[in-house]
């Protein structure tokens, strides 16, 4: 699984056959195999520090804020009062870093299965792992499925920051997972999940949306630009138990001052709405 | 300049150091050196036919429609009556293919400097070069600068479909070029130009916007998702000589029926508006 050759890391996966994104490596900072996956962290030449799990780029320092902010604030700002939040996955701490910025959020529970991702991130990705330092955050090293089976009707928002639907994360895209999410939410609860890209696997996105629709009243697909991810973008499944909510309209809007003070580099209320606008070839399939 | 190794084409350029996008090659269809540049056309394994100039991907069959539709319809639909259009560059025919779809467009003049790009595209990229078959289109093989010097006050819309600001296209990003565009336009004229990506070269985008602002009343930067381009997206500089026009609001809206009949796979009026919404880190720099 070592995809570094002649000083370049190349991302090769059956999820996006016939294409590959590569980054020049300055220095390998960490390399280990956990109970769940291969973990690689390297300093790239032009994109800062990069986290790779099972050969797939999870984040690069240059553009990770787009993903972390969007997967967090799309559901949080669509919810009228997101006091208690569950994060499933997200062992690098980036999502926790963003969620704790939201003024209405009081308590964040995070469940991550792989302790080695957390400890390696604390050491090598401190700009993300600082999310764990917030007094709002309680981190549990355990299985997200198990945790939710024992915590019903408890959360306003649940964010699933998973890797791609291959290997350990494959169950996080099934109908059964959306049932669990529904049961762990309070009435009116909202979720967001990493949902792949429409360029490489529109049928998979379509299937995920269909699975989610079996349990949620309103289901939307949004996306944002993340150059280090396949196709240079990533999708978010955002869904609500309340059919009257318009997920595209934030009920909480960050002021310009808050955007500066909280260091929001990507998200604002206009980006929120625009993220849900889809090209014709996608709109047709997800209608 | 041959970037094919072990069956993969890799795009390597000083414009985006330390990163590279690669595609698996099924068959090289064409390879030649014109007076202006190296031309390569290959059949990829998963992205259809791909055109490469001087080692840089110009389009892949899988996603080219995003670029061609957006660079065409952003200016055309913002203009109240775009009867006469000039296309500078665009030797593959893709922009002509889109521009001729607009019901109000009566006449399209295209100036492309490299005849070999046109002839190779006619043979190997017929799905794009079919744009030249429209009775609305007159193609001239000549230098765009020269052409505009001799055609003042003539066009409603001018679209510059250039390669990146390195090599033969470098002059198409200078202040002098925007002066020429202004003079070739009729009053109220609108332009769009390929304008790079904010992820890799925000200072360059900022400079291009500043150059354009010296000659145009309203200048905006928009973008769309194109996985085969660096960072998975591409920017468009859209500018008007009329300060009262809101470039973000299309004055012509394609109906759902037109979208189907004209085979618009990407562009619609909501995408038009959303393309101008920028993340905070860009908004701040381009304000």
From TrEMBL, chains A, B:
<dbReference type="InterPro" id="IPR001045">
    <property type="entry name" value="Spermi_synthase"/>
</dbReference>
<comment type="subunit">
    <text>Homodimer or homotetramer.</text>
</comment>
<comment type="pathway">
    <text>Amine and polyamine biosynthesis; spermidine biosynthesis; spermidine from putrescine: step 1/1.</text>
</comment>
<dbReference type="InterPro" id="IPR037163">
    <property type="entry name" value="Spermidine_synt_N_sf"/>
</dbReference>
<dbReference type="InterPro" id="IPR030373">
    <property type="entry name" value="PABS_CS"/>
</dbReference>
<comment type="similarity">
    <text>Belongs to the spermidine/spermine synthase family.</text>
</comment>
<dbReference type="Pfam" id="PF17284">
    <property type="entry name" value="Spermine_synt_N"/>
</dbReference>
<dbReference type="InterPro" id="IPR029063">
    <property type="entry name" value="SAM-dependent_MTases_sf"/>
</dbReference>
<dbReference type="GO" id="GO:0004766">
    <property type="term" value="F:spermidine synthase activity"/>
</dbReference>
<protein>
    <recommendedName>
        <fullName>Spermidine synthase</fullName>
        <ecNumber>2.5.1.16</ecNumber>
    </recommendedName>
</protein>
<dbReference type="GO" id="GO:0005829">
    <property type="term" value="C:cytosol"/>
</dbReference>
<dbReference type="Pfam" id="PF01564">
    <property type="entry name" value="Spermine_synth"/>
</dbReference>
<comment type="function">
    <text>Catalyzes the production of spermidine from putrescine and decarboxylated S-adenosylmethionine (dcSAM). Has a strong preference for putrescine as substrate, and has very low activity towards 1,3-diaminopropane. Has extremely low activity towards spermidine.</text>
</comment>
<dbReference type="InterPro" id="IPR035246">
    <property type="entry name" value="Spermidine_synt_N"/>
</dbReference>
<keyword id="KW-0808">Transferase</keyword>
<feature type="domain" description="Spermidine synthase tetramerisation">
    <location>
        <begin position="7"/>
        <end position="60"/>
    </location>
</feature>
<dbReference type="GO" id="GO:0008295">
    <property type="term" value="P:spermidine biosynthetic process"/>
</dbReference>
């Amino acid at each position: 699984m070592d995809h570094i050759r002649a000083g370049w890391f190349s991302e090769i996966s059956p999820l996006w056959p016939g294409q590959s994104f590569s980054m020049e490596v300055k220095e390998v900072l960490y390399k280990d195999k956990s109970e769940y996956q291969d973990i690689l962290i390297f300093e790239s030449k032009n994109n800062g520090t990069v986290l790779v799990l099972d050969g797939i780029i999870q984040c690069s320092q240059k553009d990770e804020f787009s993903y972390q902010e969007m997967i967090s604030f799309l559901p949080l700002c669509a919810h009228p009062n997101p006091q208690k939040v569950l994060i499933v996955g997200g062992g690098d701490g980036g999502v926790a870093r963003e969620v704790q910025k939201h003024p209405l959020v009081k308590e964040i529970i995070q469940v991550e299965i792989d302790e080695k991702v957390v400890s390696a991130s604390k050491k090598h990705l401190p700009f993300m792992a600082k999310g764990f330092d917030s007094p709002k955050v309680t981190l549990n090293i355990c299985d997200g499925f198990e945790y939710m089976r024992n915590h019903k009707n408890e959360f306003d928002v649940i964010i699933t920051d998973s890797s791609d639907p291959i290997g350990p994360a494959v169950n996080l895209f099934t109908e059964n997972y959306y049932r669990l999410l529904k049961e762990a939410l309070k009435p009116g609860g909202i979720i967001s999940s990493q949902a792949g890209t429409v360029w490489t696997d529109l049928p998979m996105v379509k299937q995920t949306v269909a699975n989610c629709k079996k349990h949620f009243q309103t289901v939307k697909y949004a996306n944002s630009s993340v150059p280090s991810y396949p196709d240079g973008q990533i999708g978010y499944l955002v869904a609500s138990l309340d059919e009257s909510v318009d997920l595209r309209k934030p009920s909480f809007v960050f002021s310009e001052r808050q955007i500066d003070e909280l260091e929001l580099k990507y998200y604002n209320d206009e980006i929120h709405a625009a993220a849900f606008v889809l090209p014709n070839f996608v709109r047709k399939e997800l209608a």
